[in-house]
Design a protein that fits this description.
With 73 residues, the protein is mainly alpha-helical. It is 74% helix and 0% strand.
């Protein structure tokens, strides 16, 4: 294991975003998952997970609406 001083720091916002996106697509690495469970706060990951899901859903909805608009017109 790496005994660097950064091991005890909580994950940064961007590290948490990367973890949420990687977990959503099923490609989360074991090292990052261990970091998240050891040093991360569950409430942060829940909030970011919900936010990611809402944005992802709205993006898909927008793409479908755009395709339907051009298909009908």
């Amino acid at each position: 294991m790496d005994d660097s001083p950064n091991n005890n720091k909580p994950p940064t916002f961007w590290q948490m975003m990367q973890s949420v996106m990687a977990a959503a697509f099923g490609v989360q690495s074991g090292k990052n998952r261990e970091r998240d469970f050891t040093h991360g706060k569950p409430s942060h990951f829940i909030f970011l997970g919900l936010l990611f899901t809402i944005i992802f859903g709205l993006t898909l909805f927008g793409i479908v609406q755009l395709v339907l608009h051009f298909a009908v017109g």
